[in-house]
């Protein structure tokens, strides 16, 4: 099992303190409170996605700012230098972005850091606190950014060019128009994931990230990926995948 502790970093604090207009009406705005909301949201979304057959870790329990989840026998995609079938993995990735949208959700941070891959080259999605509904005012922009992140990563890391032109084939309008499987965003609201919780996290996102959804903290988190423990490095070195 894996225990994830939600926290907000120092870069978020610097960004938010200069944008208090977003947060003036929030009486309970504190880092611990926001972290608890983020954990609550991640648990609810991860459990709902798992129940609908998405490749995600099993959500086991949530308490305060902590989420207990299944430990997956997989490796961060960002660490994988070579793939046996690049095209298949690429199509899995783009297909997952589209499938989420068909279910009414945008991941908003769908990239090589939040994808894991098994030895059979099957993808697993992680990290859900930033997810939004396809009814969000910026949903189209978030969706297209997720697709672009995958296109750019596969070109940069694996020298793979999108011969199927995923950005046009999986356009936001086309994919959302195929929504026939039931909208998870509505199901989550009906199941008790309250609107006030979502609104509070949305205010924090705007204050710390801006409307684009990007933030200085992303660079800090990316740098954290470089600090892989020695035991984990050893485990990665003996796998069939060639990782860095």
TrEMBL record:
EC number: 2.7.11.1
InterPro entries given in the database record: Kinase-like_dom_sf (IPR011009), Rio2 (IPR030484), RIO_dom (IPR018934), RIO_kinase (IPR000687)
Cofactor(s) needed for function: Mg(2+)
Chain ranges of the RIO kinase domain: 1-177
Pfam family, one: RIO1
Catalytic reactions of this protein: L-seryl-[protein] + ATP = O-phospho-L-seryl-[protein] + ADP + H(+); L-threonyl-[protein] + ATP = O-phospho-L-threonyl-[protein] + ADP + H(+)
CDD domains linked: RIO2_C (cd05144)
Gene3D superfamilies: Phosphorylase Kinase, domain 1, Transferase(Phosphotransferase) domain 1
Keyword Isomerase recorded: no
Protein name in UniProt: non-specific serine/threonine protein kinase
């Amino acid at each position: 099992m894996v225990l994830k502790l939600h926290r907000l970093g120092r870069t978020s604090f610097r960004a938010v303190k200069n944008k208090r207009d977003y947060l003036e009406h929030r009486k309970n705005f504190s880092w611990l409170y926001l972290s608890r909301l983020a954990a609550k949201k991640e648990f609810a979304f991860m459990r709902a996605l798992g129940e609908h057959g998405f490749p995600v870790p099993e959500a086991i329990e949530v308490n305060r700012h902590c989420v207990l989840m299944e430990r997956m026998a997989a490796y961060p995609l960002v660490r994988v230098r070579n793939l046996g079938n690049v095209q298949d993995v690429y199509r899995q990735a783009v297909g997952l972005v589209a499938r989420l949208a068909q279910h009414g959700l945008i991941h908003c941070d769908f990239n090589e850091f939040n994808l894991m891959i098994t030895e059979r080259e099957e993808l697993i999605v992680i990290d859900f606190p930033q997810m939004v509904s396809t009814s969000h005012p910026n949903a189209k922009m978030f969706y297209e950014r997720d697709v672009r992140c995958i296109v750019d990563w596969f070109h940069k890391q694996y020298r793979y060019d999108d011969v199927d032109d995923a950005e046009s084939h999986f356009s936001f309008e086309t994919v959302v128009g195929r929504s026939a499987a039931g909208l998870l965003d509505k199901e989550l609201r009906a199941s008790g994931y309250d609107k006030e919780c979502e609104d509070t996290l949305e205010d924090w996102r705007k204050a710390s990230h801006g409307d684009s959804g990007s933030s200085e903290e992303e660079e800090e988190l990316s740098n954290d990926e470089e600090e892989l423990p020695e035991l984990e490095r050893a485990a990665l070195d003996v796998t069939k995948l060639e990782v860095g």
